[in-house]
Amino acid sequence: MKVLVAVKRVIDYNVKVRVKSDNTDVDLANVKMALNPFCEIAVEEAVRLKEAGVATEVVVVSVGPKACQEQIRTALALGADRGIQIDTEAMPESLSVAKLLAKVVEQEQPGLVILGKQSIDSDNNQTGQMLAALTGMSQGTFASRVQVIDGSLNVTREVDGGLQTLALKLPAVITTDLRLNEPRYAKLPDIMKAKKKPLDVKTPADLGVELRDHTKLLKVETPPVRQAGIKVASVDELVEKLKSEAKVI
Amino acid sequence: MAILVIAEHDNSTLKGATLNTLAAATQIGGDIHLLVAGSGCRAVAEQGAAAAGVSKVLCVDAELYRHQLAEDLALLVAECGRDYSHILAPATTNGKNLMPRVAALLDVAQLSDIIAVESADTFRRPIYAGNAIATVQSLDPIKVITVRGTGFDPVAAGGGSAEIVTLSAVPAAGLSSFVSEQVAESERPELTAARVVVSGGRGLGNGENFALLEKLADKLGAAVGASRAAVDAGFVPNDMQVGQTGKIVAPELYIAVGISGAIQHLAGMKDSKVIVAINKDEEAPIFQVADYGLVADLFSAVPELEQKL
């Protein structure tokens, strides 16, 4: 079974985000970028499926400008076999990304597609579900456990209040939650090897997809900052403040 | 202009998040219809009919919708939703699972986690873990939206008397089936609906020590939450996680115990009315957002607090 993993280049999760002074967007100039953490979990899961003999090939795809080849190489160093970059401007909308990925699915015919549940920049949590809809596939979102049993897929999902397990028909789309696995670190020899692995570049036109804007970003602002309050010296003072000042107990 | 709101429920009770979503719909303005799809869900339809602002309840009672499987439900919502200007659902795990699939079937974008309505086509939503707020305009004829509950005060649960219309199920997708679920049994209120939340972080040291917080929570009638660090360390299950990658809460009182205050955690609780932080590290960033900070060892402070309440 071939596994397709879609990954995104995002701001490194350790970097403090700053809004541009003209409020048009977040300032990403000269900021450290990285593989989206949930996408890293997706790559790890695909590589583990290959190590377990379930997957035969792991193909990693990313939609974005040339710079996202860096994140594709990271995924290749973690164990993916080959990469595809779909060359676009930065940050296309989720629906556009899903349409491009749907074409890649049509060409590659994977048995399983794994994505992160959301990217830590736009925080949309949409692409996997949209891809599943466009390709008519089943979806196992927010997965914390994935088991392939006799051509069927059992996915345990993190839902409000607990866990839910679904049986999905293959091919399927999975989106990863935090506890699915703990991604490995790429070793130096693997990073060197990844440089020689094949990486194709395609354009939306090659895939026959015409992208159109569905939304317009009008403004980006810094949220109101909460002011620090006071330090209390003892539990007694805390109880007193909560009762008489804050009046919440 | 008519708005379709997707009810969140467990086939017997309408979940509170639906009332917050109805509040967002009321701000957009227009006729509001509530879709209740489930199995044996007539009681939910009746609760929905009583909710303020609802003019009609569309009830689809079929075994197919018992577990709210996205593949089947999306086909139904896309079919019912074609004639509406907006389709709204709570930004719960159900809503997040369902709505992008609906949007793609309708060939429109989806707006996630809105926290404010600027106009019928323009909304505010957090991005970058709440470190920036985007104002986004939809250019689509149908706006498919998930609503963050903490952004909107709930509408009244009673007083309304909308008509209930029964609709038939659409054909099954035949792609997925329910196997099992493990629901955490608890007498405590749900995290997102609780008036008081007590959360623990890595400072608790292990899962057993969360018993300290549970005692305090029971005294306060509070829900118990956790930081991502505590979840990652395996102390507690992920459904307790408060933060950008977990649940977003805004209770009247939030007590953060042994939580350093990573940005990703703050994104999940900074809209709480009153924040209390108990941490032995006086440099912990949590104190920068806390109304009341207590620099103390949690293992003595928490039992003392529990006793003195």
Task: Give the topology.
The complex is a heterodimer of chains A (249) and B (309).
Chain A: E1 2-7, E2 9-11, E3 33-35, H1 37-51, E4 57-64, H2 69-77, E5 82-87, H3 94-108, E6 112-116, H4 127-135, E7 138-149, E8 152-159, E9 162-169, E10 172-176, H5 188-194, E11 199-202, E12 215-221, E13 230-232, H6 235-245
Parallel strand pairs in A: 1-4, 1-6, 4-5, 5-11, 6-10, 7-10
Antiparallel strand pairs in A: 2-3, 7-8, 8-9
Chain B: E1 2-6, H1 17-28, E2 31-38, H2 42-50, E3 56-61, H3 70-81, E4 86-90, H4 93-105, E5 110-114, E6 116-119, E7 122-127, E8 132-138, E9 143-147, E10 163-166, E11 176-183, E12 196-200, H5 210-220, E13 223-226, H6 228-232, E14 253-257, H7 263-269, E15 274-279, E16 292-295, H8 298-308
Parallel strand pairs in B: 1-2, 1-4, 2-3, 3-10, 4-9, 5-9, 12-13, 12-14, 14-15, 15-16
Antiparallel strand pairs in B: 6-7, 7-8
Helix pairs in contact in B: 3-4, 5-8
Strand content of chain A: 25-35%
The largest β sheet of chain B comes out as: 7 strands, parallel
Low-confidence spans of chain A: none
Largest interface: A-B, 78 and 91 residues
Mean pLDDT of chain A: 95
Q: Return the string of H and E elements of chain B.
A: EHEHEHEHEEEEEEEEHEHEHEEH
Classification by helices and strands of chain A: alpha/beta
> Helix count of chain A?
6
Which ranges of chain B are low-confidence, i.e. pLDDT below 50, for 5 or more consecutive residues? Answer: none
Helix run count of chain B: 8
Compute the number of strand runs of chain A: 13
Q: How much helical structure, as a percent, in the residues of chain A?
A: 25-40%
Task: State the major sheet of chain A.
Answer: 9 strands, mixed
Cα separation of the termini of chain A = 58 Å
